[in-house]
Structure formats: structure tokens, C-alpha cells
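C-alpha cells please, single chain.
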Amino acid sequence: MHLTYFGANSWLVELGQQKILIDPWLVDSLVFGNLPWFFKGDKPAALDSLPNQIDLILLSQGLEDHAHKPTLKQLDKTIPVVGSISAAQVVEQLGYTQVTSLPPGETFILGNQIEIRAMVGAPLGPLQVENSYLLKQLDNDTTLYYEPHGYPPDELKNYLPVDVVISPVLNLELPLLGPIIQGNTTALQLAQLVQPQVFLPTAAGGNVQYTGILDALLRTFGSVEELKSQLAKHNLSTQVIEPPPGEPVELNLSRTVV
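Here you go.
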């Protein structure tokens, strides 16, 4: 398995013979609701080129930091897309031609090689729950779980073992409203539940610079070092890896040859 981290929640996963681009923000700024004064994110350097030969775009949410319209407008609109209900609506409006809306509990098979199982993810309101995903390579059962807000579902215990986890390790909280991302609260719980070989932090990495009123109000709790200490305290052998942005990393997993 090879992974490339592009900062924030953007990942390229190479599993089997398939390249899966997850929640890509690869170009331009990140702005919520076309209101840069409210919230704006900028990466330190643009990519020289967009990843090529992508087999699937996988979107967990329809919000701008997961379904980033400037990036999606530049990618090939014939690339198949699998996403939450709200994410599927975004890419359909942008003109993508192969879109699968995948509610929690349903699966999608990519290239007869990868099973993608949608699970419950982050709640974005009383009536809207977004997706998390469990990816499984069918010829050797290598698995990867992705969820970007720190809401691991109990049903994950039905699909053990999970080899690799991509999930946040920090809490991002607003006064009075509580956590927007609750990785510091749930990362250890998630590691105890599935005991992955590798835990890859997401959401807060990549040297992204944020500005705006919302960023000024956000408070951060937790750290990678804190999670490592918790894992050691609980006798968990999970390795926490922070890939350098833009550099492919090979994960040598003990159950499979990759």
C-alpha cells in the first residue's frame, strides 16, 4: 500500500492496482460559503501538477473542505466518483458523468479489486450524517478505514482486523458549541477498537495557513505525541506516521505483501 498526503483531508491511496483520491483539495484556497473573511485556508505551495491516472475520487462529505469545488473543476470529469449523498450532489452539479451516491451500509466494488463500504461518519446536523469508509483489497484482505472528524462507528468491530486508519488526533472546538473535530477524544478509542498496524493523522496537517473569524475562534486540543503516549500506556503496538506532504509513503504491513 502506498499513500500520499496533500494536507488537510486530502489523500491519494494506492491499493492493489487502484489509485483512489480522497477528499481532494489540491489547488487554490479553501473558502467556506464564498466568504474568505469568515474562513480561508491556503497551502504553502501549489502542486506542480494534479495526480494522473486516478481510478476513483472518494468523497466523505459535501462541505468545501471535502468536496473542494476548485479542485473538482480541474480534475477529469469522467473519473468515477463515490460519495456521501451531499457530496454526490456537488459533483453532479459540476458535470461529473459517473457518480455513485453511497449511503452508509452500502458497498461499491472498484475494478473487481477494492470493496468500498460506506459507514456512518460525522453528524452535520440533526438530519444529516456524512460518510466514513472501509476499503478492502479483495485478493489479500488488506483494509483501510478513513473518517476525517473523529466519529468512529461501533459497527467497525464487525470488520476486524483493520490494518490502516486515517483519522484525526486533534480536537478543534468552538466556544459554547463544542468540537467540530473530536480526534483527541476518540483516536485512542478507535485504536483500541480496531488495533491497526498504522494510524495516519488527518485534518490538521500539511502546514496549511488558516485565517478568518472562524479560525480565530477555534481552539485546538491534543497532539500526535499525546496519542503515541496513550498507545504506549495501553500496550498498543500501533505505529503513528505523519507523511511529509506530497511525498509517497509505502506501508509495509505484516499480514500482506504490498
